[in-house]
Amino acid sequence: MLFSLFHFLSGYCRIVLSGMNQERFLNLCAAKQILLWNIKREGKHYIFYISRGGYKELQEISEKTGSTFRCIQKKGIPYLFCRYKKRKCFALALLFCTAIFIVMSCFIWQVQVTGSYGHSEEELLDYLEKKGVHSGTKISGFSCARLEEQIRKDFEDIAWVSCERKGTLLRVRVKETLDKRDQKEGEMQESPCNLIASKKGRIASILVRSGSAKVKKGDKVKPGDVLISGIVEIKDDEGEIAEETLVRAQGDVYAISKIKYEDCFPLIYYKKNYTGKTEKSYRFLINGYTIKMPERKTAYAEYDEQSREILLHIGPQFYLPVSLFVITKAQCQISKESYSVSQAKKEARKRLFLFLKEYERKGVVILKNNVRIDSDKNECTARGIIKIKERVGKVQEIPSTLDGEKDIKQEPAVLNR
Amino acid sequence: MLERKSPFVCSVNGAKEISIENYGSLGDFSDKKIVLNCYKCKMIIEGEGLLIEYFTDVDMKITGHIHSIHF
Q: Which Pfam families does this UniProt record tie to the protein (chain B) (predicted)?
């Protein structure tokens, strides 16, 4: 490989040798320390490769031996320059492009933020922009270590941050700690609390793991009612409350409730029929400036337009400050259609199905579906009550009591039977 | 550099490659037979698709299907 590269850089020729004393010719080349390679015999000729420097000496050897040679191929950088020496503009353009690439590689053109859930990517990008790190920032103008320190200082919930620059791409990876809400929930998990109803309903089943049940099957509850209390009363032999213990109420409480469903849509609708014909147009976005490529005026009366952004880059790390927008126009014909009665009812049933599927995905059991679908000349309506069974119960912290009359102990959760 | 009056040194790698140092001069060359004029002897290499990979004043390398080498 190095051998080939060296010869390409210095230039080499392919020679056809014919005539008399061809072997003597080759021997004389070797004696003059001229390197020949890939020598093969083809009929009455020898074909071989020789360096550019060696080629200049062949004439003398040829005169000595009486053989004739002919150059059939010239390869290498020196011959390339000779061939294109008149194309000065090409050479200048090449140099200019090289200079542009070298200059552009001194700037950051793409900033990526990953790993953030509590803060949106836009929020972090805005923060970085305020700190002077954005597309177009000079690489020498900022330090990754200092940026990491600043992010850690300004964002309390970011536990770990890594800023890595590769080529013109700056990658910021963050790892968050638990957020304050989760921290509060974590604290609540340790503190005593009640389980209260989150919505109105009739208790279908109650299973208490910790605390004391305040409702039973069949009871009607409204939002805020205590279902399982975190205050466990310990009674003495006379049936009086001797002690109260605070626990974290835990259990599964299911209630039956009703939800009102109402849906209405017109029978007349507009349908798009795609013809399959598309037109594409292109735009370049260079550091915030849009350059439209010349395009024909669209011949479509009705069409759907979709645009896709492609960030231009050379390799995985050399991003350029140029984005290509590909705008695709798909021709369609919009026709006014009307549902028939049966079609409208089918559509209403489909919508209802999707609605119920969403509830079921959350763990709700559909007990009864009393939705009635009616259709007239103009619209189709679906109305009714849906009976569901779902888990109700949300945690309510027990406020700490200030009175010292009752000896309230706080103990780890126990199963109250 | 080895003297021309000293014997040649020949290395054979399998039946596909042969390197010869201090070979003397090239006698005859075709894709089936190569004759080398070495010191006090002639070396004849027979085979198929014979090709001289490189050829200098000191050494040379022959590649191809080598059937026999005799002197």
A: YabP (PF07873)
